[in-house]
Amino acid sequence: MTDRNGAVLSGLAGIRSDLEDLYRDLHRHPELGLREHRTAKKASDTLRALGYEVTDGIGGTGVIGVLANGEGPTVMARADMDALPVREQTGLPYASTVTLTGPDGTEQPVMHACGHDVHVTALLGCARLMSRAKDAWRGTFVALFQPSEENGDGARAMIDDGLTTRAPRPDVVLAQHVLPYPAGYVGTRPGSFLSAADSLRVTVHGRGAHGSMPQAAVDPVVMAAMIVVRLQTIVSRELAATTPAVVTVGSIHAGTGPNVIPDSAVIELNVRTYDDATRGQVLKAIERIARTESEASGAPKAPEIERTAAFPPTVNDEETTRRVAEAFAAHFGDDAHTIDLQTASEDMSEIPQAFGVPFTYWGIGGIDAELYAQAAEKGTIAQDVPVNHSPFFAPVVQPTLDTGVSAMTVAALAWLAG
C-alpha cells in the first residue's frame, strides 16, 4: 500500500459500521429500474453532506456527485442502483419483503439479487474517504449512480438526458461488480470481460386449421421447432471452436388447444457474444435461419424479428486495466487475480463510450470464503454457491464491503494520487 492509499484508506475503520448499516438498509428496501427514488435520495443526500456538487434526476433517477480538489485528472466511478423482480429466500434478518406493482398491474416481489446494494454502498464509502482525505490526492472525483442496469436502458437514459454536458469529462471511468467468488477476492481482466447480450422475439406465420386436417394448414409449430433445432448449429457449425458464444431459446408460445393448428408461433431467444464481429455474424445467422425455414415451410409471409433488449460487450481498455491490476496487486496481494471471462452483460460501457474515454470494470467476491472452499473441495460450486439473480444470493457483509470500498478507492487513486 502506498502512503497516499494508506492516508485515504485509514478512514475506513471509522465508517465501517455506518456502511454496514447502509448496506442492510439498501438490501431491505430494493427498488426496480427507473424507480430507485429512495436509493437515489440516499446517494444524493450523502454526497451533498460530504461537500460534493450534486446533480440528480439525470435520466430519471441517476445521480452524479463531483468533488473537485485542485489540478489533476478526473476519475469517474460508477455504481448501479436497481434491484430485480425476485422473491428473496435468504432468510436473513434484513431480507427484503418489498413488493411493487409491475407494468401489468400485478404485485411483484423485489430483491437485490444482483448485489447492486453492495455497489452503491462501496461507492458511497469511497466518496466519504475521498472527501475526508483531500490532502492525499489531487484532481476531480466523480461518483455516478446509475439507474436501471438490469433493463439495459439506464446508462442510455442518463446519456440522453445530457450526462456528457452535466458532468465533467473524465479521463477514465471505473466500475465493479460483486460476483460469486470468495469474499475478499478482486479480479481484473484486460480486453473482453462481459458478453454482449441480445434478446430477440421471432414470430413465424402459418395458416391455421383443424388438427385432423394438417393438409389445409401451414403449421407454425413445426416451423418453430425446425428453427430452434437449426439455431443450435450457429455456435457449433458457423463459429470457430475458439470463439465463445451462446444462443439460448428460452420461450416458445403457440396455439390454444391440442386439436387446433395455430396461425402463428413466437420464439424468444437470447444471444451472448464478446465482440461486435461475432455479434453481427450470429444475429445475421438467426435472421437467415428464421426466414429460410419459414420459406421452406411455405409460410404465407416472412417472420417478424424484433430485438427486445440489447447490452453492449464490456471490453476493458488494456492499459487502464494494467494500471488498476498493478494497484490491486500492491494493495490486496494474493487476493488480486485475473478473473475469467464472464457470460453476464452490462450497459455500463455506454457511459465511457459517450465521453470517448477508456474504462475498466472488475469483479469482487461476495461469497463466504469457507462455504466457497468447501464447495470447491467437493466439486459442487455450481450447486452450492448462489449466483447473481438467485433468490439465495446475498453477499456476506464483510469482508465484501471493505473490499469493495478499498478496490474503488485504490483504483481511483491510481490516477488521482499519481
The helix fraction, in percent, is 25-40%
* Main pleated-sheet profile: 8 strands, mixed
Secondary structure: number of strands: 18
Shape, principal axes of CA atoms: elongated
What is the average per-residue confidence, as pLDDT, rounded to a whole number?
Answer: 97
Gyration radius, in Å: 24 Å
Report strand order across the widest sheet: 1-2-6-3-7-18-8-17
List keywords for this structure.
418 residues; 4-stranded antiparallel β-sheet; alpha+beta; 26% strand; single chain; 13 helices; 18 strands; 38% helix
Ordered list of secondary-structure elements with their pairings:
Layout: H1 3-9, H2 12-28, H3 37-49, E1 53-58, E2 62-69, E3 74-80, E4 99-101, E5 107-109, H4 116-132, E6 139-146, H5 154-160, H6 163-166, E7 172-182, E8 186-188, E9 191-194, E10 196-205, E11 209-210, H7 220-238, E12 246-254, E13 260-261, E14 264-273, H8 276-296, E15 304-311, E16 314-316, H9 318-332, E17 336-338, H10 350-355, E18 359-367, H11 369-378, H12 381-384, H13 400-416
Parallel strand pairs: 3-6, 3-7, 7-18, 8-17
Antiparallel strand pairs: 1-2, 2-6, 4-5, 8-18, 9-16, 10-14, 10-15, 11-13, 12-14
What do you see in this structure?
The protein is of the alpha+beta class and 418 residues long. 38% of the residues lie in helices and 26% in strands. It has helices at 3-9, 12-28, 37-49, 116-132, 154-160, 163-166, 220-238, 276-296, 318-332, 350-355, 369-378, 381-384, 400-416; strands at 53-58, 62-69, 74-80, 99-101, 107-109, 139-146, 172-182, 186-188, 191-194, 196-205, 209-210, 246-254, 260-261, 264-273, 304-311, 314-316, 336-338, 359-367. Strands 1-2-6-3-7-18-8-17 form an 8-stranded mixed sheet, sandwiched between helices. Strands 12-14-10-15 form a 4-stranded antiparallel sheet, covered by helices on one side. The protein has a two-stranded antiparallel sheet with strand order 4-5. Strand 4 and strand 5 (107-109) form a beta hairpin. The two termini are 14 Å apart. The mean pLDDT is 97.
